[in-house]
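FAQ: What does a multi-protein file look like?

Like this. Sequence, then tokens, then the next protein.
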Amino acid sequence: MSVIDWLFDADPSIRWQVMRDLLDAPTDEVAAERAKVATEGWGARLLALQRDDGYWAGERAYFPAFTSTHSTLLLLRELGLEPQSPEARRAVSLVRERDVRFEYDDLPYFGGEVEPCINSSVVAIGSYFGVDVRPIVDRLLGEQMADGGWNCEQERGSTRGSFDTTIHVLEGLLAYEQAVRVSLEVADARRRGEAYLLERRLLRRLSTAEVIQPRYKVLFSPTPRYLYDILRGLDYLRAAGIEPDERMTEAIELLESKRDGEGRWPVEYAYDGEHHFEMDDAEGLSSRWNTLRALRVLRWWGR
């Protein structure tokens, strides 16, 4: 079985992205496949789990870690649930109308809270599903650090950016620009944040050139969630339309080295904890999510 056939033997959320990102399928065919996310497979299963009070699990938005309202909305976005579909509009309306709130100070969900990691994900979700999140965007812009990055530990005294936080904010700001409007100040903040990653070659300290965290080399699955890895960094740069350059070479070569003899990429780390249901194979086995993302990165790179 070819890699493409193997990817197609999967959920609609993977198939439509293969059609768009790897096969250049006609727009109407991609849209038809994408529409299935709301009514078939993982997307439909997630939507069916939302309670009448607007929450998916727990009594507040952020916990439990992988079944919470926040995590589920983020996952629905990653699956590509069509934001204008009746199913998406109903789900988001329930979150707003039933007044879903965060643990922190009982704040309303789409108003955000205090941590840039969480707020930037709310920006990505809100922008995607048509909710006004500009006040959170403004807060994030004011929290960018001198080195171009962001850090959730800033309020506790940190003066340097963090890869984990910075990738969250970059993804959120990009989602805002793609869905809402191009903003010069947002674009400038993103460019500074991208430079933060690129100057460090996506995994190394600027001061010593040492690898910042060994886990940056590990491919998470099914999606990166709250941690950074090289594939997440590369896939962001691809999505942002950044021209490939030599500062990405080490990360690209590391990514290529992880491909197996069948042309697939593995699950190298699966998060512990309760999930709604499994969306990938176990650690050490081939991952459709990682293979899809890796192939579109390499296509962007020119390989």
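And here is the next protein:
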Amino acid sequence: MIHGCWPSCRRLPASPHLLTWRGRFRTRDLHQRAAEALGATTATYRLSQLRYDLANCRAKGLVLKVPKTQTYRLTPQGFRICVLFLKLFHRVYAPFTAAILRPFADDAGLPSNRRSALDQLYAGIDRALDQLLDHLGFRVAA
């Protein structure tokens, strides 16, 4: 995740289960799922932190608080961003990180013209992301 680019709501899980009752959700219903998605417990990711993250999402126009209730709902923009992140995760991040975490040792020695089309495409994504981040002024953390 590009830190500094997205609000803290980038940490909230994008889940179709959020839309439980007429497209609305409550913080207490989201708390457990958000903590699990962050690899935390509800004791370490407190409800106040979730509310802070939701406030940031509200400020960015991604969620709205339903008046006179204790519920929130995704805005159309928030829904589009959730769908975008889910698609990126399933189509790019998951396969890409699987190749990074469990690479074949012999792949590093192959010249690019001998790599599979899929490996070349992923390498292209990697280069394009590096160029994008460089253009935006982001540097790789040491």
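Q: Is there any per-entry metadata?
A: Some entries carry free-text notes. For the entry above: The beta strands are 24-26, 63-65, 71-74.
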